[in-house]
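Co-fold these.
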Amino acid sequence: MGDRQRKKELFNQLARVGKALGNGKRLELVDLLAQGERSVEHLAVVAGLGLSTASAHLQVLKQAGLVNTRKDGTRIFYTLAGLDVAGLYEQLRNVAVDRMAEAERARDDYLHGGRAPVPEAQEQELSREDLLARAADGAVTVLDVRPAEEFAAGHIPGAVSIPLEKLQQRLDELPPDQQVVAYCRGACCVLAYEAVELLHAHGRQARRLQDGMLEWRLAELPVTTGHAA
Amino acid sequence: MGDRQRKKELFNQLARVGKALGNGKRLELVDLLAQGERSVEHLAVVAGLGLSTASAHLQVLKQAGLVNTRKDGTRIFYTLAGLDVAGLYEQLRNVAVDRMAEAERARDDYLHGGRAPVPEAQEQELSREDLLARAADGAVTVLDVRPAEEFAAGHIPGAVSIPLEKLQQRLDELPPDQQVVAYCRGACCVLAYEAVELLHAHGRQARRLQDGMLEWRLAELPVTTGHAA
DNA sequence: TTGCTATTCCAAACAAACATGGAATAGAGT
DNA sequence: ACTCTATTCCATGTTTGTTTGGAATAGCAA
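Predicted complex below.
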C-alpha cells in the first residue's frame, strides 16, 4: 500500500467523526447525551425520531467512538464516550456560531424567538465564578430547571430541582426574597431563559447562569449526582 | 414557526460545520491550510484533486465559515478562518484517534507504515517546553522540514528550513556535532519522522518534536514569519 | 416452553453528496 | 478590444446517507 493510500485512509477515518457530527439529529442526540445516559426509546421520543432511525443514528455515533453503551436487562443505555467528546461538541458549536452568521441567527431565533429579546438580559447573566462565590455566601438560590432525571445524573452542588414544566405550580418552594439563578443544559438550551422570564413575570429576582451544565462539566467544576434536593 | 422547528433549524446549522469536517479530502485541505494560505490550484495539486473538485470542497468549507478567501489579482488564496478552527480540527483528530481503534491504526500505519516502527522513538520526542528551554541555550538545532512556503508562512523562532526532499543533499548545513530537533506540520505529519530516520542513517543525533506547527500555534507560542534563516 | 419488551438488522425508496468535464466569469497583460 | 489564466458554475452519472416498516435477536418473566 502506498503512502498516498495510507494518508487517504487516515483522513477517511478522521472524517468518520466529522460525518457523525454532520447531521442535525445526531447533534441533538449528542446534546441530550451530554446531560447523562439515556435509553434508545427515550432518545427517540425526545428527539422526535422513529425507533429504527434513532437506533441507526446511535450506531453511527458509536462507530465513530463518540458514545458508549451499557446494557441493563433488556434496555441499552447510551452515554457520551467522555468529556473530550463533550468538548468537541462545544467547540463545534462555538465555531459554528462565531463563524457562520446563519448559525448565530438560528441560535438566537431558538433561544429568544417568539418572545421579546431583552437586550440587557445578557449582561445580567452570571458567570460560573460569580455563581460559585455567591452560592458560597448563600446569597442566591441556584435553580436547575432541567427534567428531574437530568438533575439526578449530575447537577451543581446545592441546586434545587424544579423542572420548567412544574415551575409555575411550585413557585412557593423558592424563597421569595432571594435572588434566583436558573440554569439548564447549556449555551443552546431554552429552559433557563423561559424560567427567568416566568420568574420575572411573578415579580421574582432572577438571572440566568451563563451557559449551563455542559460547560460547567467541561470547566471541571464540582458536580453532585442523585435525587436529593 | 414552532419551537420544534426552530430547534431543528439550529441543529441543522450546527451540523453544517460537522458536514464540512465529514469528508477526508476536506480534512486534508484543512490540514494544509493550517500551515498557511494557499491558492486553489496549489491545494488541488497537493491534495490530489481535480480543480473543480477542490473548488467545490473549498466552497463547502467556506459556507461553513471554516475558511476565508483573499483575492490577489486573478488568484484566490484560502486561509483558515481562525485559531478556533485549527483547534476544532485538532480536537476532532484527538477524539478520533483516542476513541476509534481504526483511526489510531490508520494514523500509525501512515506515520510508521512501510518503515520499521521504532518503539523507543516516541519517548525520545521532545515536548514544546523542553524545546524552548534547550533552544534558548543554543543546545540544539531546530529543523523545519516542511516545504519552504510553509516555513515562510510561520515557523518556530530560530528554526532552520530544509524541506525533507532536499535534506539529503543539504546535510552539511547542519552542525555535525549538535543534536537536531526536527518538526513538521503536526501530530499527523510524516515529514519529521522521515527526517529523523534519514538523519540517524547519516549518524546524526536527531529527535522529533512532539506534534508540530499546528499544535505550536494552538499553544500560542511565538511564531516567526518570512524566508530568513 | 411461551410471551413480552427493547433494540437492532434488513431491504427498499428516497434524498443528498461527490467527482468530472466543459462552459462561464473575472481579472491582468498586451 | 483580445488573450491568457485562475477560479467558479453547471449538468451529469455515481455513490453514499436517511427514513421507514417489518423481521430478527436477546433478555426477562411467567
